[in-house]
Amino acid sequence: MAAGCAIVSSATAPVEEVLVDSESALLVDFFDPTAQAQAIAMLLNDSSFRSRLSAAAKQAAVAYDCHAGIAGWLDLLGVDTTTTVGSTSKNLPNEL
User: Fold this and answer.
1) Angstrom distance (rounded) from CA 22 to CA 19
2) Tens digits of per-residue pLDDT, 66-88?
């Protein structure tokens, strides 16, 4: 996702929490290899659609950035990040 690739994935609950069919990925039945192949062919044959899905997937990945995750955990734990690591997640060390 973060690499900006178009995604074909299974239409399962964990995936559907992150991706939306035909908006940020093509979601197909987990047990349907024909549908998987058709989705891949669709992306190969439609560069405009592939580009839109890629951009949307990359945008969706932003919410799962490690800095955002750490900031969320610190907030949940009640850690005052203004005195410990800065006022926003952007101030967290890059090596996290």
Assistant:
1) 9
2) 888 888 889 899 988 776 555 45
8 neighbors 28 (Cβ within 8 angstroms): yes
Residue 11 is predicted with a pLDDT of 97
Phi, psi for 8 (deg, rounded to 5): -115, 125
Q: Long-range contact list for 70-73, CB < 8 A, 24+ apart?
A: 70/96
**What SS3 class is residue 18?**
coil
Q: Is 4 left (phi over 0), alpha (psi -120 to 50) or beta?
A: left
> Counting beta carbons within 10 angstroms of the beta carbon of residue 11, is it exposed (0 to 12), middle (13 to 18) or buried (19 or more)?
middle
Rama region for 75: left / alpha / beta (φ>0; ψ in -120 to 50; rest): alpha
